[in-house]
Amino acid sequence: MLCRAAAESQRSIFPIVYRRLLSGRRHSRPIDSLTTSIRPFPEYSPKKPSIHDADLVRSVVTALKQRRLEPASEVLGHFATGFRPDHLIWSLPNLRSDPDLALALLDWFRSCRGPVPAEALAIGAHLSVVSADLSGARRLLRDGLLSYRNFVGRVIYTYKYWSSTPAVYDLLFRAIVDINRLDEARALFRHLVTYGIIVSSDSCNALLARLTLDHLQSTFAEFQELGLRWDSKSHNILIHSLCCAGKTQEAHEVLLGMKGNADASPDVITFSTLIQGYCNEGELPRAMELFEEMSNKGLAANAFTYNSIITLLCKDGKLVDADRMFVEMLHRGVAPDRAIYTTLINGYSKIGNLNAVYRLVEEMKKSQLVPDAMTYTSVIYGLARSGKMAEANKMLQEMINRGWNPDEVTYTALIDGYGKEGKIKDAFYLHNEMLRAGYVPNVVTYTALADGLCKHGEVEAANELLHEVSGKGLELNEFTYNSLIYGLCKVGNIEQAVQIMVDMEAAGLRPDAYPYTTLMDAYCKSGNMDQAHNLLREMLDRGIQPTIVTFNVLMNGFCTAGLLEDGRRLLEWMVKKSIMPNTTTYNSLMKQYSMEKNMKTVTEIYKEMCSGGIMPDENTYNILITGHSKARNMKEACYFHCEMVSKGFSLRATSYNAYIKGLVRKKKFTEARGLFKEMRSRGFVSDRDIYNIFIDINYNEQNVEMTLELCDEAMQKCFQESEL
Prior knowledge:
The chain is mainly α. The chain is 72% helix and 0% strand. The chain is built from 42 helices and no strands. The longest helix is centred in the C-terminal third of the chain and has 20 residues, at 704-723. It is elongated and about 135 Å long. The N and C termini lie far apart (97 Å).
């Protein structure tokens, strides 16, 4: 009844979802009845040899036992002609005390007489297990399974007589799984239960790892009810399969069922697998909860665990948090592997933070981790995206020298980089190189080419290219259409851009906020604010969620057109609809009101912005300082300048000019002189009025050398500026 107790114990802690699976199981009798009527193994009774056959068997056995260093082929060679399969089976009982001789006899028979009988292979497997030659037993069992249909029956038939151990059935079960006869393996498990033998969980894990999810779940439940005590690895296989199928919540139920189970306690792999499952689904909070629980249990996260979380953080653009997790990993003594470095490099490449990319590559090399093709491609992507094509090509050459071949992703990254720089010839040269290397350009490659053509103003050429590849069966995606819409809007052909969006929908692709925002921007720049506003209404009516960029485009359009009241109403509508404006939204309004010299309204908007938790940026401070300086509100200008400097922001050239003039008007010459010196050190060009002011000041102070220097500088820079 031990099997029954084990089954009942595991059922009590197993998740409800699997109890339902158990109740719907369809197989042979339940374990309760099986354990009370276990049948004995059959008695082995081979047929008796004749006197002549017995003499031959005795001679062969004696020759084998008396041999010393001679190979079996020399000792038994003269017996080969008359030695039949029956003789082999009759010989084996006489060699049961010396398994090595028995196995030598089997090998000799195979070499001189051909296939070994199924019964002899089964006996040989038993003898190998007894002598702890497990690899030999596996080989014999595999040969038997591949050669004879009834081989499992022969192993069971010969088991009792040859005093084998239950381990032979683990090996037999594994051999059946190894040759991928999975239904037969399940049937063997059920059959062995009737003899009171339960295959080990370790052997059954090999079966679980090969099953589809549905069969895995049913087998897990069935074997458990039949008395198998699954271990941690078994549960981890189930959790992994559920996570791969996107059923992470069900996988979590399995984890909960493991708690308190002495045979299957959750380990690092359990938690790491489930953490990866939640990360793949974008469920960062759930992943972090498990990470914390794992730490509380004293289980140290490994590189795989950290990589799952860091990958999701990079995917979500949370590079600061990803870097913090990376530092924590180092602090806990977990050595990052190549995958983690590549993940971080790829994340920083996507946001154009090349300093971080270079730092990580150097750290990686110092750790004796050799960058692979994926690492190099990530670096190349970042360099190309940032317009550093010379460095990208240098990295490509290093990649090739290290023995890594660029693939279609690498080529596409370079093609996209050349396209953005307007170097269309270089982009198409790489496209041809890609073809010569045997890689097939995909829709992303052609989108990059089309995008480059569009940015270069060659919209018709881009259109022709895409029609050509579309005719070859390549399906265009939304990015391809978006590139065409952008290109057409850039050259002012809004009407054709609208038609492209119609074609996009006809192709079964639903436009998102990007093409709408691109069209709205084009309408705003052409002064057609009514049509831009209509596009926003159309987006909302169709359930397409505008992005903050969409609203900022419309806000900038209203402000540029002088429709400040419309801009204010848009801002109020956004707040009312819980659409959070960002700094750019407020800056557009503040800039236009500042140009209108309405600093009272600018101040109101600034306060409204800060009270809403929106932090001012460098552009905000430049707008405020320029506006207040022109309005001669120097107290306010000085206040914002101090705050700006404390936050690490800097003045623009126009802000310097306005601020210096305001200080001079207030007779604050010392402060003005300091700012003028700072402005010159940063390479900014002051306007003629400011040069005239400081030329007069230095002349009145009889500072002839500085006066002449400023005169020369004013003539040179102001002349160049007017020429430009």
